[in-house]
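User: Design a sequence. Structure:
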């Protein structure tokens, strides 16, 4: 699932779902996104949902938690000094939260490396 339809080319022969993108300035777009996300999760029933960020990913994790699906947030590698805004919200309800910077790990937020490698 992605907000970018072109990502479907990255998973040839696999199920792919497109959801509308939105942010705090276009929050009204979250209404159709929420409906679509719930239908996708109910149809697919994944064992877990993982996202690296942004509002649609956060909304998907919230929907997954409400459906008792395991959740994992990996905060953006761009956030060096503090967790992203969505990351700060995610740590309140997501089962597992990871940062890609060791200095940001604390309590619920874990560090296990970064996507670029050490």
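Assistant: Done.
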């Amino acid at each position: 699932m992605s907000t970018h339809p072109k990502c479907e080319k990255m998973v040839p022969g696999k199920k792919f779902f497109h959801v509308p993108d939105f942010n705090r300035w276009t929050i009204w777009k979250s209404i159709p996104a929420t409906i679509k996300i719930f239908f996708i999760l109910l149809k697919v029933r994944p064992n877990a949902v993982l996202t690296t960020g942004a509002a649609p990913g956060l909304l998907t994790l919230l929907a997954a938690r409400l459906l008792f699906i395991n959740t994992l947030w990996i905060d953006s590698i761009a956030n060096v000094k503090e967790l992203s805004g969505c990351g700060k919200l995610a740590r309140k309800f997501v089962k597992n939260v990871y940062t890609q910077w060791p200095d940001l790990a604390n309590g619920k937020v874990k560090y296990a490396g970064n996507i670029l490698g050490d």
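The chain has a mean pLDDT of 90. The helical segments are 30-44, 55-66, 85-90.
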